[in-house]
Amino acid sequence: MLLRLDLQLFSGEKTEKATPNKRREARKKGQIVKSMEVSSALTLLFSFGFLLVGGKSLIEGCLSLYRHSFKEYMHLELTISSTQVLFNQILWESVKITAPILAISLAAGVIANYIQVGFMFNFGLLKFNFGKLNPLQGLKQMFSLRALVELVKSCLKIIITSVIVFWVIWKRKNELLIMGEKNLIDSARLIGSLVIQMGFAASGSLIVLAAADYIYQKFQHEKKLKMSKQEIKDEFKKMEGDPFIKGQRRAKQRELSMNRMMQEVPKADVLITNPTHFAIAILYDHSTMEAPQVIAKGKGYTALKMKEIAKEHNIMTVENRPLARALYASVEIGETIPEDLFNAVGEILAYVYFQEGRYKEMMT
Q1: Successive 10-residue mean pLDDT values, the chain, 364 residues
Q2: Judgement on whether residues 74 and 172 belong to the same structural domain of the protein
Q3: Do 257 and 225 belong to one domain?
Q4: Are residues 351 and 213 in the same domain?
Q5: What ranges in the chain are assigned the alpha helix state H?
Q6: What is the reported pLDDT for 214?
Q7: 179 and 290 inside one domain
Q8: In a domain, 18, yes or no
Q9: Residues 288 and 324 in one domain
Q10: Distances 213 to 41, 168, 223, 319 between C-alpha atoms, Å
Q11: Closest CA to 340 of 302, 301, 291
Q12: Rounded distance, CA 9 to CA 5, Å?
């Protein structure tokens, strides 16, 4: 067992999950989990949904164009200018009729991409790759395992959707057989409802296939991103020397340190300020401490934040500019007050205790 593990490590077998950095790099290169079946399934579903809701307006638009053509356009004199006007008017009416369903299809494509990969736009992927024009490379792709999988998926999609559509038609075969006895409007309604029913049935089957394909694509993507133990070690060493990573780590450490320090401010007896540039939180417990202690300090934004927290917890704030500067410069967090500042800090603590009715506590 140990020998086999050593061999795997030595051979660089990719058995480990990809690191976050490897995933970010892959995303930048366009290596993402994406199934084209999701886009086609949602586009078909949204399109038939629009036909169900707005199909009446679409039919009315087509009939209006039909009537308008026979009432007005048939009487126009056939010239170059009239033909151009006729073409522009018909084109504009056609655009107005088809624009909603085109917008719905576009929205479906955008939504399908967003739910799979989120917001992503990489200009680097727009570069022209001459290698894709290589016929030998194209032949390799045609006879690859991926091409075989795509062929199987396409065949399954055609077979399953065909069976489902046939089943929908077969269920309503009796209505279709007597359609000749109905008038034109009723026949059109029957055909329209049947088409929408077939569309929703086909869309549902495609969504199931798209979900299965997405799971397969995710599995393949994770398999492709896997790393060997040596690659993880090399990446860790590289990231250790990366200035950006170091900067991020230091920023995170500063944030954690600041959060811990802010949690100490409510414990303070007094906050000595500059008043706006510096703030030093002093704590003194005469029963356990030989001298007052600095439990938090900050300048600029940190000082303002400390003042806000002190105000929220009714911690008295005393302004003493020289003392605040001296404490900030000479005393670190967790250290006691130096001897040369005892008297100044003691006077402030005595004032605070007197104001809060705790003067006897300090005297003891």
Answers
A1: 45 70 77 81 86 80 77 69 78 83 83 77 55 59 70 85 89 83 80 86 87 85 80 72 64 72 85 84 84 86 86 88 87 86 86 75 52
A2: yes
A3: no
A4: no
A5: 2-11, 20-28, 36-71, 80-117, 135-142, 145-171, 173-177, 184-225, 229-240, 243-264, 301-312, 321-330, 342-355, 359-363
A6: 85
A7: no
A8: no
A9: yes
A10: 12, 25, 15, 67
A11: 291
A12: 6
pLDDT confidence of residue 167: 92
As beta bridge partners, residue 283 has 293
User: To which residue do tokens 């007094």 refer?
Assistant: 270
Same domain, 158 and 300: no
The total of other beta-carbon atoms located within 10 Å of residue 294's CB is 23
My answer on whether 271 and 202 are in the same domain is no
Report yes or no on 77 lying in a domain: yes
Q: What is the pLDDT of residues 292-325, one digit of tens each?
A: 888 888 888 888 888 888 888 888 888 888 888 8
Which of 229, 262, 277 terminates a domain? The answer is 229
The model's pTM is 0.51
Q: Is residue 64 within 8 Å of 96, Cβ to Cβ?
A: no
- Residue 251: count other Cβ atoms within 10 Å of its Cβ: 10
CATH of the domain at 304: 3.40.1690.10
Q: What residues contact 137, with CB distance under 8 A and at least 6 apart?
A: 131
Q: Three-state DSSP class for 348?
A: helix
Measured distance CA(310)–CA(269) in Å, rounded: 10
**Sequence-distant (≥ 6) Cβ neighbours of residue 323 within 8 angstroms:** 272, 341, 344, 345, 348
How far is 239 from 19, CA to CA, in rounded Å?
12
Domain assignment of residue 327, yes or no: yes
Q: Which domain holds residue 295?
A: 253-363
Residue 111's pLDDT is what? 85
Q: Which of 196, 229, 262 is the last residue of a domain?
A: 229
Which helix or strand (DSSP H or E) is residue 319 part of? strand 316-319
Answer yes or no: do 225 and 276 share one domain: no
Q: How many domains does the chain have?
A: 2
pLDDT of residue 240: 62
